[in-house]
């Protein structure tokens, strides 16, 4: 089961540390701690519009820039047997 909500940030909030820009005024922010599998989680952030409050992970892309997914089994850090 996936639970998600939306939140809007105040426009005067400073950009959080470690922010990775994913679009115009859209960022992924790393969580403070990694999970039990050692995976770094991220949350969406925008100073100007609402975002989905869900947990995201980094993925690899053929162009080397990577991306984000909410599916941990698609994450780079997840052990694939």
Sum up the structure in keywords.
single chain; 81 residues; 7 strands
Q: Could you explain the architecture of this structure?
A:
With 81 residues, the protein is an all-beta fold. Helix content is 0%, strand content 31%. The protein is built from no helices and 7 strands. The radius of gyration is 13 Å and the shape is globular.
Cα-atom Rg, whole angstroms?
13 Å
Query: Structural class of the secondary structure composition?
Result: mainly beta
**Uncertain stretches of 5 or more adjacent residues:** none
β-strand number: 7
Walk me through the topology.
Blueprint: E1 5-7, E2 20-23, E3 26-30, E4 42-45, E5 51-53, E6 57-59, E7 67-69
How would you summarize what this structure contains?
The chain is mainly beta and 81 residues long. It has strands spanning 5-7, 20-23, 26-30, 42-45, 51-53, 57-59, 67-69. A 3-stranded antiparallel sheet has the order 2-3-4, with no helix packed on it.
